[in-house]
## 1
Amino acid sequence: MARYVADKVAERIGARSLPPIYYSCSEEHRDFPQTISVKCRSFLPYLEDVLRSAVEKCGVVVVVVGHGGVWDAVKLISEQLNYELGPRVLPVNIWAIASPRDHAGSDETSIYLAIGGSLVGELVEICEGDISLFGKKRVGEFSKTGVVGCLKPGEVSAERGRTMLELVVEKIVERFRQFTSLRYIS
């Protein structure tokens, strides 16, 4: 999802989209067999090196974050680099803009379909977990499936996902224009 959004933003602002960092802090999902995670204390120096190098090569970098678990790390490193180098790194969190009601529920599934994803089987209604527990407990402690909130088949559609994605892309482009105007204020 983040890659899709980054590519669309890059098209609109006339920039290039760099490959994503696939493995990051995802300790909250460690209980699920498909999760590969690195500790945040290991990830932070790597992220700083990647962003510093990207700034050296590109001038300004928009970091599109599609995984909430890594947001604090990205925000921290972005702020440190901006204090040091001036406004060069704009971190954006897709989920803060899209405001999904759940995790892996109707909203995220709609977005997944909108970017070309496909369903493996029939959707079944799942409502479990408490979204307010993110950051306090591992997801496996309050959700057996990884869905936190509700996945309701009647609410899922690629069109709904496209609408959400378009809003996200527009907001990021707007933030980018505001951010780059800061660079020229003395």
## 2
Amino acid sequence: MLNLWLRRNDTRVPFRNETIAKTVVHHTEKNMSLIHKSWLELKPNENEDGNQEWFDEYYKRIKLKKEYKNIPKEVFEQWIHAHHKNYETLNNYAWIDYEKIEFKLLKWSFEKLENINIIENYREYSDSRAMCNDLSQFCCCDEDLKHWKENGTWRIPPIILDVNSIIDDIPKWSEIKEPFQLVEGHSRIGYLKSMNRISKLGKEKISDNHKIYLMTKVRMHNNV
């Protein structure tokens, strides 16, 4: 394991993680800092073999950190815990200060969701889920499939970034585009497009609105 120090806002933070370390080295060679200390504080623990702690253990520990009470359990489970070391997550979102981020549970229409920005490496994957003509073609667990059939929408709200709220802070290397970007839920967005087609075919009925977590930077009273 590599043991590196990362400088961010004059704060030196130690961390042990090969995937993160390689990414940081790549950018720090260009005098860039990539990983915010808040992202490191949200890192799942690993044993000596590099195996990550189970979510229940992780959440029991992380929910005690009062500075991150703004982050819903579903956001931790589907994204921060599950994809903490993912390259695209590190490259695009690990620089953010998560003490200053809120996740608003909102309802959006299909029309507002269908053209949301998806990073290039995940577009083909998401598009492949958007080609179904029947619910039987959805590749998901029974619980999710039942929810699609009964409610015409997904069971767990995906995570969407309000890009305009962080527009002044975005680093040059990040693939982030206005006005909204899908952070997590690429299968769900694809299946929603399929659900819209299936609804038009008269086989099922798509919901009028769909729950999402809107990830937004909180504007503090001192404008930071």
